[in-house]
Every structure is written in structure tokens, then in C-alpha cells.
Amino acid sequence: MDKLGKKVIDNLKFQVKNIHVRFEESNQAHSYSFGVSLKSLTFGTTDKNWQPIFVERDKVKEEEPVYKSMHI
């Protein structure tokens, strides 16, 4: 992967608000469904102390992990 692609993936951040996910299943014997509503879902890059950051791969070692967090 090229440097720009790595930078985009390393620093990917998104937030979705007011989500409703519904699952439905039916067969000959039973039908059921359930759903989950979330006020917000946020995903982003953090440092090892879970503080949001922007990662610059040329300033850190390639082997160093990139931390991600997800808040529901």
C-alpha cells in the first residue's frame, strides 16, 4: 500500500448518529425480530492513552501499532 493509502487508513474517523439496526428471521416454525437503536457510533484513531490523534507514519516507526477506538 502506498504512503497516502496508509495515512488515510491510519487516520480514518467517522461518526454516525441516530442508528437503528433491525434483524428479522423466519422459517416454517417461528418468526422473530429484534432491533437496536444507537444515539451515536464514533470510530477514530488514538494514542496509547486513548486520546484522539493524527498519525504521521514518517514520524513513528512502521512497526509501532496504530490504536483505534469505538464509542457507542
Concise summary:
This protein is mainly β.
Q: Which structural class fits the helix and strand makeup? A: mainly beta
Assembly level: single chain
Distance between the termini: 30 Å
Number of strands: 3
Give the number of domains. 1
Question: What overall form do the CA principal axes indicate?
Answer: elongated
Question: What does this molecule look like?
Answer:
This protein is mainly β and 72 residues long. The protein has one domain (3-71). The chain contains one helix and three strands. The chain has one helix at 3-10, and strands at residues 14-26, 31-46, 67-71. It has a three-stranded antiparallel β-sheet, with no helix packed on it. A hairpin with a 4-residue loop joins strand 1 and strand 2. The longest helix is centred in the first third of the chain and has 8 residues, at 3-10. The protein is elongated, with a radius of gyration of 19 Å. The relative contact order is 0.25.
Which SSEs are present, and which pair or pack?
Layout: H1 3-10, E1 14-26, E2 31-46, E3 67-71
Antiparallel strand pairs: 1-2, 2-3
